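Need a sequence for this fold. Nothing fancy.
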């Protein structure tokens, strides 16, 4: 047995990928549940217009969120998507209708807004 025993490694269980297109509302519901779980708050208290940072999510958790989007919802997304679309409302709108939300990084490059 070597330094890393593959039989003991943990793999995140992959859930089934939806077979029909997801709506903005269904993506919002998924994100609300996920953020509420991470932040350990009641899903009813999650404001979809509140920035992810205000829920106390750190960089690692935001990277994991992008991986979860891929695994659970079937979306291939950038690792920094939560920075470009920093609220549940903006991210779900972007994922359900790509191109409808301008990424935060594009606004910063144009001299609008701030992080």
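Here you go.
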């Amino acid at each position: 047995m070597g330094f890393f025993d593959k039989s003991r490694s943990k793999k995140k269980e992959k859930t089934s990928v939806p077979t029909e297109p997801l709506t903005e509302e269904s993506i919002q519901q998924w994100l609300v549940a996920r953020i509420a779980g991470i932040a350990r708050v009641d899903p009813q208290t999650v404001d979809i217009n509140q920035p992810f940072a205000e829920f106390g999510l750190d960089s690692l958790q935001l990277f994991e969120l992008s991986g979860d989007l891929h695994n659970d919802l079937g979306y291939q997304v950038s690792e920094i998507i939560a920075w470009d679309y920093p609220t549940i409302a903006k991210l779900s709108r972007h994922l359900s209708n790509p191109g409808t939300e301008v990424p935060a990084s594009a606004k910063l490059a144009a001299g609008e807004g701030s992080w």
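For context: Residues 24-39 form the longest helix (16 residues).
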